[in-house]
Amino acid sequence: MGEAFLPYLPNGTRDAWADGPLSPRSTDEQAAALLTAAGFTCVQTITRRLDTRFATVGLWEAFSWPTGQRAMWLAVSEADRPALRAEPYLLRPEIL
Fold this sequence. Notes:
- By secondary structure, this protein is mainly alpha-helical.
- Helix content is 39%, strand content 0%.
């Protein structure tokens, strides 16, 4: 759902979750290597797809603030937040 933020972020703002070393595009092997390099032993990773749905945009917002998406919310100006909440991407039934 981070895609919804993109039009509202200041230029140069990166989504660390989408672009970082443990992004959704990371392989199990990359995740295991990162954790092993941090000192963890006996690392095992398993990929599972979780289809998450929210009944309303408000419930998604309430969920996203205390997670890693807080940084994204804080990067969006207060004036632009109503437009973000009305973003058509978020209103698609398959998203909510």
